[in-house]
Write a structure and sequence with these properties.
By secondary structure, the chain is of the alpha/beta class. The chain has two domains: 10-105 and 112-244, Aspartate Aminotransferase, domain 2 (3-Layer(aba) Sandwich); 247-367, Alpha-Beta Complex (Aspartate Aminotransferase, domain 1). Helices cover 39% and strands 15% of the residues. It has twelve helices and 14 strands. The chain has a seven-stranded mixed β-sheet with strand order 1-9-8-5-4-2-3, sandwiched between helices. Strands 7-6-12 form a three-stranded antiparallel β-sheet, with no helix packed on it. A two-stranded antiparallel ribbon has the order 10-11. Helix 1 packs across helix 8 and helix 2 (37-50) packs parallel to helix 8. It starts with 9 loop residues before the first helix and ends in a 5-residue tail after the last helix. The structure holds pyridoxal-5'-phosphate.
Length: 372
């Protein structure tokens, strides 16, 4: 068996290569690289895909989160609730606008924000909650929407890992007043560089965000607000329009691969729980293992590449020292960061490779007496 990478975009890229090449040449010939027709078209398509009225393309996922917070007027002195177990960008975005992230531990089964704990953390300063559909598994949106409504706080989704996922048939990225996403190459919908977007149903926020991403300017050389430069360029927008045509099919393929893993992996191996309301998109497929580091070394010796998401939780990162958190503050998050291992799942991964990987994992658990 040849070496199995953790992720490879080779197969996906081969499918769209000709179309992408022609599209890039077309953009070059158009002589228009920033804020043009391709972006406008992709924004319309992605809004439709997300079941929202509007979409604003921006430079990356972190900016999508940051600009969302700015557009909602969140600033110093405000508090924003977020899950403790997430990619650091969710937390950095809150810090960068000067607000204080208030972290809430996650549910040990779904790995998403623990809804039963959220209200304990809401104060008079709480302005918003950012939820993350971790690894492509939607949060419990009924509960979250009702908590946000009851406490009069704004709901923002970080949909960077869940393009196309649904909760009770509704697309993630359509629940929040603003919904941020990333098109980093390895995301389920990724471009050929950095990219991001915000989806919304609010015309006012849509217009505000169009200014914020472009020097605060709706009309060239007229700046109404203090904006930044964070735009999704024409080449990336064109590529994303091409890839968007494949995303539903690719998400289905990911679901099939995940089901195959689930049918092969010993049922005693703990995996992320998916509620029956959810249609997840398996941005990542993770397993829990008490001997995670040993398992990773073992799989590597068998030619299987894996990754850890995430080895150091945000509250224990140096960058977040000022938040005053310490080890032990979020026991579930800390347990997950010590025990989760992400195994290969990408378009082009072969079914015999999935069999081989699952088999090696089962062998490791048995050999090490990890079934209790
Ligand atoms: C990737 C990711 C981001 C950041 O996106 P970038 O485009 O890399 O800035 C934010 N949140 C989550 C949950 C992510 O997975």
């Amino acid at each position: 068996m040849k070496k199995i990478p953790f992720v490879s975009l080779e197969h996906q890229n081969a499918i769209i290569k000709k179309e992408v090449e022609a599209d890039i040449l077309n953009t070059i010939a158009s002589n228009h690289f920033i804020l043009g027709n391709k972006l406008e078209q992709f924004e319309k398509e992605y809004a439709t895909f997300s079941n929202t009225a509007f979409c604003v393309g921006v430079g990356n996922g972190l900016d999508a989160l940051k600009l969302s917070l700015i557009a909602l007027g969140i600033k110093e002195g405000d508090e924003v609730i977020a899950p403790a177990h997430t990619f650091i960008a969710t937390i950095l975005a809150i810090m960068e606008v000067g607000a204080k992230p208030i972290l809430v531990d996650v549910n040990p089964d779904t790995y998403n924000i623990d809804c039963l704990q959220i209200e304990n953390f809401i104060s008079a300063k709480t302005k918003a909650i950012i939820v993350v559909h971790l690894y492509g598994n939607p949060c419990d949106m009924d509960l979250i929407e009702s908590i946000a409504r009851k406490n009069n706080i704004l709901l923002i989704e970080d949909n960077a890992q869940a393009h196309g996922a649904t909760y009770k048939g509704r697309k993630t990225g359509s629940f929040g007043i603003l919904n941020a996403t990333s098109f980093y190459p390895a995301k389920n919908l990724g471009c050929f560089g950095d990219g991001g977007a915000i989806t919304t149903n609010s015309n006012t926020l849509y217009e505000e965000l169009q200014k914020l991403r472009n020097y605060g300017s709706a009309k060239k050389y007229f700046s109404d607000v203090s904006g930044c430069n964070s735009r999704l360029d024409e080449i990336q927008a064109g590529i994303l329009s091409i890839k968007l045509q494949h995303i539903e099919k690719w998400n289905d393929e990911r679901r099939k691969m995940a089901s195959y893993y689930l049918s092969l992996l010993d049922p005693r191996i703990k995996k992320q729980r998916i509620s029956s309301f959810n249609s997840p998109v398996y941005h990542l497929f993770t397993i829990e293992c008490k001997e995670r580091d040993k398992l990773q070394t073992f799989l590597s010796s068998k030619g299987i590449d894996t990754q850890i998401h995430y080895p150091i939780p945000p509250h224990l990162q140096k960058a977040c020292l000022s938040l005053g958190y310490k080890e032990g503050d979020f026991p579930v998050t800390e347990m997950l960061s010590n025990s989760l291992l992400s195994i290969p799942l990408f378009i082009g991964l072969q079914y015999n490779e999935i069999e081989y990987i699952a088999n090696q994992i089962n062998v490791f658990y048995k050999k090490n007496d990890l079934f209790i």
